[in-house]
Design a protein that fits this description.
eight-stranded parallel barrel, 417 residues, alpha/beta, 12 helices, nine-stranded mixed beta sheet, Lyase, Ornithine Decarboxylase, Chain A, domain 1, 2 domains, binds pyridoxal-5'-phosphate, TIM Barrel, globular
Length: 417
Amino acid sequence: MKEEPPMPNFSLPDDVFLRAADTFPTPFHLYDEAGIRSAIRDVKEAFAWAPAFREYFAVKALPNPRVLEIFRSENCGLDCSSLCELILAKRGGFSGKDIMFSANAMPPGEYTMAREMEAVINLDDLTDIETLLSHGGIPEEICLRFNPGGELKGGSAIMGQPGESKYGMTRPQLSQALGKLKALGVKRFGLHALLASNSIDREYYPTLARLLFTLGRDLSGEAGLPLSFINLSGGIGIPYRPEEKPNDIRAIGSAVKKVYEEVFGPVSPSGPAICTEMGRFMTGPYGWLVTRAVHEKKIYKDYIGVDACASCLMRPAMYGAYHHIHVVGKRDKAPDHIYDVTGALCENNDKFAWDRPLPEIAVGDLIVIHDTGAHGLAMGYQYNGRLRCAEVLLKADGEMRLIRRAETPEDYFSTLV
Ligand SMILES: *Cc1c(COP(=O)(O)O)cnc(C)c1O
């Protein structure tokens, strides 16, 4: 069989990047509304079989109100886990069961706010029961976060290392928690786990689903409480590298359905609901960091300095993550130069690429860094007095709109006392 050529990373035509850079000063992240909407629809179709399916977009991936509006208009909820994310949700018109509040070493006051908003609480630890009791009280429906420990294996592949993860409760703790919660008035429960990150293994969701479905069924029988939903959370990955294949979310949805029927029998509207909290999969491929080459330096290696730095996109500096890069107007040119593409921080890890084959770059060229729509600007920081960049939304009708301005020195100094 012939090898399939590598899939190009999802991209917009170069004239879009040129038009954006003519309108807004670089650097900025450009997000594609049409792409985000298509991901939402794909996910909804993949899980259309499931009772009361809902995606709760993980706010931390792209916390911009104009983007959250897109999710609201598609009837998605939000997954929040901090005071500011709750405020974002509230201002965006999300309330009650539109919000999943994933606790983890929470400042107790944040429970109070989540309870006031009637968000669904996803309890991370046994001790959180007491905290919740004294900060807003115990709701009738609650979600519990599970940590199976050890390694998550599917076939021979290791998909995650839950034993190393700070989240969730052990199996015996879940039983204990449910007993306590029932005595405190809980009427039904959901179950949640996030055991992998950026998984492009199509077995991840089905494997997790089997674990949570059987555990939910068993716990429900044990505690005498109905299981109202299973929260498969996030972790579904995207192809950052051109040779990686995108996840087929429809095939994943069908595989989860098969497991559902094995555990719960034929799907019925009264069966446990399914929800997801995808972040990366929903917005990751539909964002690009648009930056300009401002400097070239040749010493022991060739360096291209750009006007963005890790303050706008930290993943490469933080985890050595690969982000695809192309040079506007030079997509068809041979990648016959080897560059490190760097920002201006006084930190040698401030690079967007190491030893990357690219066409010859001239100062002034527009450089597009791909797949920055999730965990991109949101992870930015101000180290070295470098400020976070702007965000632009390419709307479905073609209009380009500034949805976050770049930070200014006034912002940088605004917190000083
Ligand atoms: C980060 C996170 C997600 C989203 O993860 P992705 O890998 O972006 O899909 C979902 N739920 C919780 C609780 C998270 O912390």
